[in-house]
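Supplementary Methods. Inverse-folding protocol.

Structures were first reduced to a discrete structure-token string of length 337. This string, shown here, constituted the complete conditioning input.
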């Protein structure tokens, strides 16, 4: 079975082809126009998707050595995400499937992130605990079996990736903020500033990063009162200290869940899973606990068509189909199909 996956939930236009569970191509066109605005502009994102969707899909088919007519099915993200962006990919996917006379299935963007850990040859065994961290979401999920999820906890305010972007903006760093903070943190001292670790829901799995973000804001305000500018070393130390606080909170709840539910495999997905500190510290702690840790390669961490194609392939293989009347849902929950 050969399936085309289309991802347009935010500002990456991506298409990929999976054949019998193996990735044959994965094309991602990043939108650079948003950098000068310091964040994604929804209207610009949807217009860019309109320009890019056809050449990206054609390139995915070409790299896979196949044609669109040879497809056995089409999958596209229906939510969550930016409504205008979602509509472009979803409408294109439904139209293509209809024109080809092929089955279509809508894919939950968050579910696709979880299943991005199935893109590699080595895959986690069920049940496993998955931590999804991105610009828009922070979720801790118990994956009991394919398409059988329990959301253990999620953020009540800012997502981890959103906090990274906002702190980067406070420091005058470039967008996107996550990679910028990570780069500067490598040259800083994570113990330079003791930023707070959220005590919200201390025995549970809910996350909160707004207090940490505000603490950085006040620290920088006070520091600016004492100096005219922020030297590089100061910025590096703030980045390292902030990043350490975020990773501490994420990993504490992540490994607590693994222990309580008695799983042997754990996984991390989403754009923030590309963070070097999160990856290295998670690997070290998993090894110490005797757990197998799964994190996708870099190209599968951020939004990509491969994770959508894989999810679509698994659902179509199991007989799932979506109506051509399927609508985009910006706030779609992972607990819903």
């Amino acid at each position: 079975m050969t399936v085309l996956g289309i991802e347009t939930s935010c500002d990456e236009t991506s298409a990929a082809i999976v054949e019998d569970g193996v990735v044959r191509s994965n094309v991602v066109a990043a939108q650079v126009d948003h950098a000068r605005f310091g964040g994604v502009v929804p209207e610009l994102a949807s217009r860019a998707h309109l320009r890019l969707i056809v050449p990206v899909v054609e390139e995915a088919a070409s790299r896979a050595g196949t044609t669109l007519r040879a497809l056995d099915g089409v999958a596209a993200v229906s939510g969550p995400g930016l409504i205008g962006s979602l509509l472009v990919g979803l409408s294109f996917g439904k139209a293509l499937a209809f024109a080809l006379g092929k089955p279509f299935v809508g894919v939950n963007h968050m579910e696709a992130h979880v299943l991005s850990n199935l893109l590699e040859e080595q895959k986690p065994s069920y049940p496993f605990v998955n931590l999804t961290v991105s610009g828009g979401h922070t979720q801790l999920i118990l994956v009991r079996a394919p398409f059988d999820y329990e959301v253990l906890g999620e953020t009540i305010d800012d997502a981890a990736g959103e906090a990274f972007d906002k702190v980067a903006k406070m420091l005058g760093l470039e967008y996107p903020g996550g990679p910028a903070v990570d780069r500067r943190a490598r040259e800083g001292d994570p113990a330079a500033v003791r930023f707070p670790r959220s005590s919200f829901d201390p025995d549970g799995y809910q996350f909160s990063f707004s207090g940490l973000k505000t603490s950085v804001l006040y620290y920088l305000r006070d520091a600016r009162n004492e100096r005219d500018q922020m030297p590089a070393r100061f910025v590096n130390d703030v980045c390292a200290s902030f990043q350490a606080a975020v990773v501490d909170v994420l990993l504490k709840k992540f490994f607590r869940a693994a222990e309580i539910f008695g799983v042997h495999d754990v996984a991390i997905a989403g754009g923030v899973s590309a963070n070097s500190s999160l990856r290295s510290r998670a690997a070290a702690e998993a090894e110490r606990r005797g757990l197998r840790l799964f994190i996708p390669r870099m190209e599968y961490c951020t939004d990509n068509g491969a994770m959508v194609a894989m999810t679509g392939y698994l659902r179509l293989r199991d007989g799932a189909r979506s109506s051509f009347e399927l609508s985009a849902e910006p706030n779609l929950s992972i607990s819903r199909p």
